[in-house]
Amino acid sequence: MKEAKAMDVLIIGGGMITNDLILPSVYHLQRTGTLGRIRVCALQSAPLKALKESAELRSAFPGQDFEACPPVTEPADRPFPSLYKELLAATAPRQAVVVAVPDQLHYETVMEALRCEQHVLCVKPLVLRYTQAVEIETLARAKGLFVGVEYHKRFDRRALMAKRQYALGHFGAFAMGEAKMIEPYYYRHSNFQNWFTTDKTDPFVYVGCHYVDLVYFITGLRPVAVSVSGVKGRFPNGKEGYLWSNGRVRYENGALLSVTDGLGYPDDGAGSNDQALLMYCEGTDRTGMIQHDDQDRGVRHTYLEPIGCGGTRYNYVSPDFYRLVPWEGPGFKPTGYGFDSVAASLETMRRIENDTAGLAGAAALERRRALIREVDEAGLLATPANSAFNELVVEAARLSIQADGDWCTIVYGDQPHAAMRRS
What radius of gyration, in Å, describes the C-alpha atoms of the chain? Predict the structure, then answer.
C-alpha cells in the first residue's frame, strides 16, 4: 500500500491562538507524518520571533522549527500586509492553510487561499456575513477544496455524549438555557486592543458563537432571533470596545439561550477563564438537564509560584481543552479536544488528497467534492455548508448590539438573512 503523502501547511497569523493551540498541534502532526513543511506568516516579525523563542514550544518539540515570513531579522515595526498573498500564490496546489487573523480579515484571507487552490482551516467565526459564507462555500465546492471552521467545542467529549443522548431522546426537547464565556482581563493588554473595537466585533460574536454553535450541534435546532446588549469600555491604548455582552438567542422550537461574555475574568482568578453551559429540556411529565462546567473540571493545582499568562498559584487546571503531556516520543505532545479539532480538519484535508491522488483532473475533482459532501453531512467538523447559520447569528448580533439590544430576526428559506424586528 502506497504511503500517504504529508501536506505542507501555511499558518496565516502569529498571535495568541497560534501560540496556544495551532502551532503546537501542527508541530505534533508534522512529527507523526501528517504534515510536512511549516510556514507561519504574520504582519510583522515580532510575533514570529516570540514563537521561535518560546521556551515551552522548544521543550515540547525539540529540533522542530518553522519558516518565519517575514524573517525574524526584519525590523519589528515593519509591516508586510501583502506577504501572505505572495506566499499563497507560490504554494503548490491543495496544501493546508490555517487562517488565524482577526475576525474582520477572515473573508479576504480565506477567499485568497481558495483562489490559490488551497484547503483551509479558519478560526471561528468563519466570516461576519452570511453571503460571504455562501460565497466561500460556492468557490470551495467549485474547486473541490475543503474549508473547516474551528468550532472545537464540537470535539469535547461532553458535547459528543450530549449530542448522542439528545438524539436518543434521553433529555427531551431543549427549552431554556444559559451559557457564559468570560475571557481573561489580560486580553485587554494584547493585540486585541488594536482590532477588538466596537465597529468590528464584540464578545458575543467572538466567543459567544462557540456556545451558539454547540447548542445547535447538540440539538439540531436553528436560531431564529437574537438580542445582544453590550457594555463599552476603553482598552489601554484608548480605543473603545465592547468589553462585556449579554445575548439571548431564540430557537425554532421556541427555546431561549442566554449568553454572557466578556474580556474580564480576573487575572488572579483560579481559572484561566469562566465558561459553562446549562440546558433545561422538556419531556413528558418530567424535565431533563445538560450541565457542563467548562472551567473547573475537577483538577486543581497549587504551585510554588504563578505560572503561565495571567497564572496564579492556585489553579483550576482543565485537562480537556489543551495540555502538553508526556508521550512515547521526544518532548511532549498536545492533548485535548482543541488539538483533536485542529487535527481532524488537517487530517481530513490529507485524506481527501491521498484518496484522489491516482485520479485524473475531472475524476479527482468529482471525488474530492463527494468526500467533502460526506464531511458536510456528517456534521462533526464545522464547514460552511453545515454551520453558516452562525454567520446569520453574527449578523443579527451586530445589528442588535448597535441598537442596544433590540431583537433581530433570522429568516431562512431561499434568501436567508437577518433583519431588525419591527416594533
Answer: 21
The Cα 117–Cα 122 span in angstroms is 15
Instruction: Return d(Cα 404, Cα 124) in angstroms, integer.
Output: 24
Q: How far apart are the first and last CA of the chain?
A: 65
CB atoms within 10 A of CB 423: 5
Calculate the dihedral angle through the C-alpha atoms of 10, 14, 18, 23, rounding to the nearest 10 degrees. Answer: 50
Q: What is the pLDDT of residues 130-189, one digit of tens each?
A: 999 999 999 999 999 999 999 999 999 999 999 999 999 999 999 999 999 999 999 999
* Structural contact between residues 33 and 76, judged by C-beta atoms closer than 8 angstroms: no
Residue 351, phi-psi category: left (phi > 0), alpha (psi -120 to 50), beta (remainder): alpha
- Beta-carbon-side half-sphere exposure of residue 135 (alpha carbons within 13 Å): 14
**CB neighbour class for 277 (10 Å; exposed up to 12, middle 13-18, buried from 19):** buried
d(CA 273, CA 184) in angstroms, rounded, equals: 6
CA–CA separation, 344 vs 328, rounded Å? 21
For 178, list phi and psi in degrees, rounded to 5. -145, 145
Give the contacts of 195 (CB within 8 A, at least 6 positions apart).
102, 103, 104, 201
Residue with cell string 464531511: 375
Please answer whether residues 23 and 47 qualify as being in contact, where contact means their C-beta atoms are separated by less than 8 angstroms.
Answer: no
- Domains located in the chain, CATH noted: 7-153+328-383 (3.40.50.720), 157-320+393-402 (3.30.360.10)
For all residues of the chain together, what is the average pLDDT?
96
Q: Are 27 and 370 in contact (CB under 8 A)?
A: no
Tell me which residue has cell 465597529.
199
The residue assigned the cell 458535547 is 159
